[in-house]
Amino acid sequence: MRGVYPKGVPLYPCNADCATLEDCTARRSPHLAPIERFMAELLPSLVIVGRPNVGKSTLFNRLTGTRRAIVTNEPGITRDRIYGKAEWRGRALEVVDTGGIVPDDKALIPQEILRQAHVAIKKAALLVLVVDSQAGLTPLDEELGRLLRTTGKPFVIAVNKVDSMSQESNADVFHRIGAPVFPVAAEHGTGVDDLLDAALAQVSVVASVEEEKQPDTIEVAIIGRPNVGKSTLLNRMVGEERSIVSPIPGTTMDNVDLEITRDDRNYRFVDTAGIRRKGKTTLVAEKLSVVMARRGLERSDVALLVVDGEQGVTQGDAQIASYAEESSRSVVIVINKWDLAVAAARDAASRDAATAKGKAKRAPGERHNPENFDAGRLMLDYEKMIRAKLKFLSYAPIVFLSAKTGERTDRLFPLINQCWDARRRRISTPILNNWLKDEVDLQRGTTPKARPVRIYYMTQAKIAPPTFLIFTNQKEPLHFSYQRFLENQLRAKFDYVGTPVRFIQRLRKREKRSSERGPERDQ
Who contacts 4 (Cβ-Cβ below 8 Å, separation ≥6)? Predict the structure, then answer.
């Protein structure tokens, strides 16, 4: 038995064989999974609580930058405690997601959820009560507020589902609970930065990310459509026949994990199942394999997007690429079967040369020589086509190779290392602001007829992916073209190859400063 509740229902990850739930509970601390034990010892805990279906799991996923917690419209999906880590402004917090609490429900599952929540609350440094702005203040919200107050722990209220500034007034009623209120939209990330700032302000002991031991294994997910050569690429990179390879699409169903060491660096490769459109998947196992493939992508650092060089970039490739970009993974675009693509292009050129139009292009008596085919020019044209179809991955490097023959596969490891280093690169605040002041012409990025953009201050809030907090004079979000200008300038200076860059914008309030300087000017 491995941490299993009676009747075989999994309760939580346990590394020991406990005969009963009581035994496992009594000896809970030694049996924590390694990541949970590490966080429990070093990081202060931020525990998310609330009634069912208010968006706790969505907030957990947003804070941790993962999709570990299942999110549906059906209440009561989360039952056990789920652990993750949030990193913000160079600081780290343990984040715990709990099930929806209904204190008066005497059924077995709700009571077990309540017990699990009590265990998390007991160890919490800060509690976050999540409520639903659209439902308003309910008696259960008030009851949970009273329950949290009796714990003696500091707590704040995250008023979820505030999707626009016009809805922020819906949060006013929750001040009756008697705790700081933060309007947020967990699904979109709005207001979450203010919540994290408040969490760091209330928690006194927070481990600095720089002081933690950096992860020593690079997680690499190999993603793509069925039958583009993902398993062949894995076998080539690890040097053994690890994954089954066949011409039948959909051969790989489960994610295949394999760890290797190369040049004193550790890598964990995940060969995922081919991802198809929903309408193309029929078998339940195939649908599940697609879900697991996306899960494999979510826990990776670098995604190798494998494209069939013979077929080119399809709509399916673009959709999978969007999954990687939305999940903020670093990306390397791998054009596989390049030897076949070059051979097909050479044959096509020979056929064209044999036509009357092709003969007319040649000098009299000149014969077509297939050896004169320019593969380098084909590569340049192909790269332009890829950039045009995958504009949102303009930062991703492209490598042309043949997994079957091994041609050019040696270029992958240096690119993976570059993406990994860029993903975890942290720029100090003084260096950022000196660069912004001395080297960036902000007026170049301003759109015509728009209010001139001023960036007063800039700091890096987190890594993986690099996220920057900018204080501006704009109430409205910066125009996408301005963000793109700023991103391009940042990449050119600090070499953020292969990794997405995110910006969080805040309006800098200057009224107080101007009012303080007013009397001085009058004197």
Answer: 10, 11
Q: Where are the alpha helices (DSSP H) in 65-138?
A: 108-122
Integer Rg of the chain from CA: 27
Cα 418 to Cα 498: distance, rounded to the nearest angstrom: 8
Backbone angles phi, psi at 434, to 5 degrees: -65, -40
CA-to-CA distance for 303 and 229, rounded, in angstroms? 15
For 115, 259, 312, 389, the CA distances from 384, given in Å and listed in that order, are 58, 34, 12, 9
Scored b (16 or more CB within 10 A) or e, 454-480 reads: ebeebbbbbbbbbbbbbebebeeebee
- In 3D space, the residue among 416, 421, 405 whose CA is nearest the CA of residue 466 turns out to be 421
- Kindly report whether the global pTM for this prediction surpasses the value 0.85: no
Q: Which CATH number fits domain 217-423: 3.40.50.150, 1.10.287.90, 3.30.450.90, 3.40.50.300?
A: 3.40.50.300
Q: What is the mean pLDDT of residues 152-167?
A: 90
- 252 phi and psi, to 5 degrees? -80, 125
**Owner of token pair 């894995």:** 234
Q: Which of 43-57, 194-208, 433-447 has the lowest mean pLDDT?
A: 194-208
Report d(CA 216, CA 23) in Å as an integer: 34
Q: Do the beta carbons of residue 157 and residue 131 sit within 8 Å?
A: yes
424: nearest Cα among 396, 465, 467: 465
Q: What is the DSSP string of 196-231?
A: HHHHHHH-S---BGGGSPPP-EEEEEEEESTTSSHH
Which of 298, 276, 295, 294 has the alpha carbon at shortest distance from 286? 276
Sheet with strand 256-262: strands edge to edge: 256-262, 265-271, 217-224, 302-308, 330-336, 398-400
Amino acid at 325: E
CATH assignment of 429-511, given 3.40.50.1820, 3.40.50.720, 3.40.50.2000, 3.30.300.20? Answer: 3.30.300.20
* Residue 132, beta-bridge partner list: 160
Q: Are 20 and 4 in contact (CB under 8 A)?
A: no
- Is 338 strand, coil or helix? helix
Cβ-proximal residues to 440 (8 Å cutoff; 6+ apart), any chain = 486, 489
DSSP structure string for 435-476: HHHHT--HHHHSPTTSPPP-EEEEEEEETTTTEEEEEES-SS
Question: Which residue carries 């270029």 as its tokens?
Answer: 411
| Portion of the chain with pLDDT greater than 70, in percent | 72
How does pLDDT run across 400-449, given as a tens digit for each residue? 999 999 999 999 999 999 999 999 999 999 999 999 999 888 777 666 66
Per-domain residue ranges for the chain? 32-210, 217-423, 429-511
Q: Which residues contact 489 (CB under 8 A, 6 or more apart)?
A: 439, 440
